[in-house]
Please model this.
Amino acid sequence: MRNKRFPEVYLDNDLNIRIAYEEQKDGTAIYYRVKRLAKPGQVLSSDKNRWEKLLHLSTEDSLSNAFMGFDKANKNVYWLWSDSTSDLEKVVKFPINNAKKRITVFQPSKGGIGSVLWNYTDKSVLAITEVRHSP
Model:
C-alpha cells in the first residue's frame, strides 16, 4: 500500500486492507473503509477517492473504541464500542458498509469488559469477561 495518511490499517481474514484510521486536527478520529478492494497485483493507496467514511468518533470516544476483527465471511466487523450514551463499553457487530446497523453482542451490566476470547476458527467472539470493581 502507498500510504501517506493512515497511522493504522486493519486487515480482513484474507489479509486485504479494509479499514484505516486517521486522527483529525481537532482530536476526533475517522475510520475509513476501502471503496473497492485492490485487484491482485494492484497497489492500494491512501488517496481520498479510494476510501469512504465508516465511523467518526469524538475525541473522548476514540480513546475507548477499538477494532476487534472481521467475521468469517469478512462482511461484518466486531468492535469494542463506547460512546456518550453509557459509561460502559460494549462489543458490537456491524456490516462493513454501514456502521449504523450495529447490533450489540455483549454489554456488561455493572462493570467493564475485562478481556475478549476470540475464536480464530469461526472468527467470532467466544467469551467475554466482565470486571466489576466493588467499593
Q: What stands out?
A: The mean pLDDT is 92. The CA atoms of residues 94 and 101 lie 6 Å apart.
